[in-house]
Design goal:
By secondary structure, the protein is of the alpha/beta class. The protein has eight helices and eight strands; from the N terminus they run αβββαβαβαβαβαβαα. It is globular.
Length: 177
């Protein structure tokens, strides 16, 4: 992370957005049915933001410590290109992901909420946290979203990146035709 760059300069360089799931794409709560099945709620604003970001040429990825089938379904629905599940060493997964995506650390944004996300956050070009994140995580974020986890925080970040790269208005204009 280069602290001398401002937020817009960091966002201009992003070629890959990496996300945690629980507490970022969801509100952090995990509902478990009697049969052990996990239920998660995802926000459509985040989903559409990710689609617009992908259409602008930015790759998307997930690195998560859990392995919930519902996340795999959502990954397919959204066309997320890289999915690392059940990961206990996010630093190692991040290195593997960067190689697979062909990007440098400064070209990566990561949005997280807890201390397990710090090994990636302290290395990427644009570390982002949701407002409900752990205090230490908040301290290492270059940007803290105004929207809450599971309530459009990822969409906010997608639009921040697109705005910085000059692609947001073109994408939004498509809906005004």
């Amino acid at each position: 992370m280069n602290p001398s760059l401002n937020l817009q300069q960091r966002a201009e360089r992003i070629k890959l957005l990496i996300m945690d799931v629980d507490g970022v794409l969801t509100d952090g709560r995990i509902y478990i049915r009697d049969n052990g099945e996990e239920i998660k709620a995802f926000h459509t604003l985040d989903g559409h933001g990710l689609k617009m970001l992908q259409n602008s040429g930015v790759q998307t990825a997930i690195i998560t410590g859990r392995d919930a089938p519902s996340v795999g379904v959502r990954v397919k629905q959204l066309g997320i290109g890289h999915y690392y599940k059940g990961i206990h060493d996010k630093k190692a997964a991040y290195a593997e992901l960067r190689q697979a995506a062909g990007v440098e650390e400064y070209e990566c944004a990561f949005i997280g909420d807890d201390v397990v996300d710090l090994p990636v956050m302290i290395r990427c070009g644009l570390p982002v946290a949701v407002p409900e994140a752990h205090d230490l995580t908040l301290q290492h974020a270059a940007y803290i979203t105004r929207r809450s986890a599971g309530q459009g925080a990822v969409r906010e970040l997608c639009e921040l990146i697109m705005r910085s790269q000059g692609t947001l208005q073109t994408a939004l204009n498509e809906y005004l035709k």
